[in-house]
Amino acid sequence: MNLQNKYSKNLLELTITEDDNAICVSWKGKSVDRDPSVFTGPILTEALEYCAGSGKKLLLDFQDLEFMNSSTITPVSKIIELGKKRSVRITILYRKSKNWQELNFSALRIFETKDGQIEITGRE
């Protein structure tokens, strides 16, 4: 895989890790850019394409994210839609105890599939 381990722009840091089953993109800091897809889009797309070719799951971990503006939901929902088309399993992890995360990510449950291809999971 050609992805680096860490990417950062302004207050947002994305860390890529890989294990036997998944590629994990961990979000940390704050996503405050007006159009975060300029930064996050190419990283998420490359990770998704790697998962499509390797059969691994894409894990998007938002548990350590301190804040994200409403513009951040757009690239996340786009990668979910692309994942559905490419038959990539995607799990989104968020922190239920952070009210803003519960509000934002519970809204993404509309993308969940009965077969578990797309999962939105809140953890305490």
Strand content: 25-35%
Q: Give the low-pLDDT segments.
A: none
Helix count, per DSSP? 3
Task: Say how many strands there are.
Answer: 7
Largest sheet: 7 strands, mixed
How large is the radius of gyration? 13 Å
Shape: globular
Mean pLDDT: 94
> Helical amount among residues, as a percent range?
25-40%
Q: Which structural category fits the helices and strands?
A: alpha/beta
State the end-to-end distance.
32 Å
Order of helices and strands: EEEHEEHEHE
What is this structure, in a nutshell?
The chain has 124 residues and is of the alpha/beta class.
Description of the structure:
This protein has 124 residues and is an alpha/beta fold. The chain has three helices and seven strands, in the order βββαββαβαβ. Strands 1, 2, 3, 4, 5, 6 and 7 form a seven-stranded mixed beta sheet that branches. Strand 1 and strand 2 form a beta hairpin. Helix 1 runs parallel beside helix 2. The radius of gyration is 13 Å and the shape is globular. The model has no long low-confidence stretch (mean pLDDT 94).
Provide keyphrases for this structure.
124 residues; 32% helix; single chain; globular; 3 helices; alpha/beta
Write the layout of secondary structure elements.
Layout: E1 6-9, E2 12-18, E3 22-31, H1 37-54, E4 57-61, E5 65-68, H2 73-86, E6 90-95, H3 99-106, E7 118-123
Parallel strand pairs: 3-4, 3-5, 4-6, 6-7
Antiparallel strand pairs: 1-2, 2-3
Helix pairs in contact: 1-2
